[in-house]
Design goal:
The chain is 85% helix and 0% strand. The chain contains 7 helices and no strands. The chain has 191 residues and is mostly helical.
Length: 191
């Protein structure tokens, strides 16, 4: 589940990568130089949040915070895009959203590697594969329909899926899904 959470968070990032040039340059009319500066500032937001994740009491708390905020900000950003917000509202919300992806990346990576420390090579390969698989799937989806609305919807969709994976992974055995499936399989193994 941590790998799926990571993949959906990568989908949020790649939604931005695929849509940002069109939204910023074509819709808002900023110059290529300004676009480069804004893109760099957003990358710095990710780096800062990545560095802040280990300051939480646990990586589970960092992942919950990142996923919760990512979903909330995605909803705000979608609404802002649909309402035709000005550039700075878009940029502030995008800055916040991308900082939460950075926090989620750190936490999901750490938790995936920790949960599979005996198979660290396989876990690492799966993390990389999931990230780039989502990265390849997302850009064509973002290009469907009107760019502003599709981008907002994709932000919400992938943030919600990452949120769901986080909730399932962090709740662990207390989750009804885990109790249902693992009790069933545990029963079959002991018979």
């Amino acid at each position: 589940l941590y790998i799926m959470q990571y993949g959906f968070t990568m989908a949020v990032l790649f939604t931005n990568v695929a849509s940002a040039p069109f939204i910023m340059q074509e819709h808002y009319g900023i110059s290529p130089m300004m676009f480069s500066l804004v893109f760099a500032v957003n990358a710095i937001a990710m780096a800062i949040a990545t560095a802040l994740a280990p300051r939480f009491r646990s990586m589970e708390k960092a992942l919950k915070a990142g996923s919760d905020c990512m979903l909330f900000i995605s909803i705000l950003l979608c609404g802002a895009l649909l309402l035709g917000c000005n550039f700075w509202i878009y940029e502030i919300l995008l800055f916040l959203l991308l900082s939460m992806t950075g926090m989620s990346f750190t936490a999901s990576n750490a938790l995936a590697m920790e949960s599979e420390h005996g198979n660290a090579g396989i876990a690492s390969a799966l993390l990389g594969t999931a990230g780039y698989a989502f990265g390849g799937i997302v850009p064509p989806l973002v290009g469907l329909g009107e760019m502003m609305s599709t981008t907002g919807i994709m932000f919400i969709l992938f943030s919600a899926l990452a949120f769901g994976c986080t909730r399932l992974a962090v709740s662990g055995k207390n989750s009804w899904i885990f109790r249902h499936f693992f009790n069933r399989y545990q029963y079959k193994e002991t018979v």
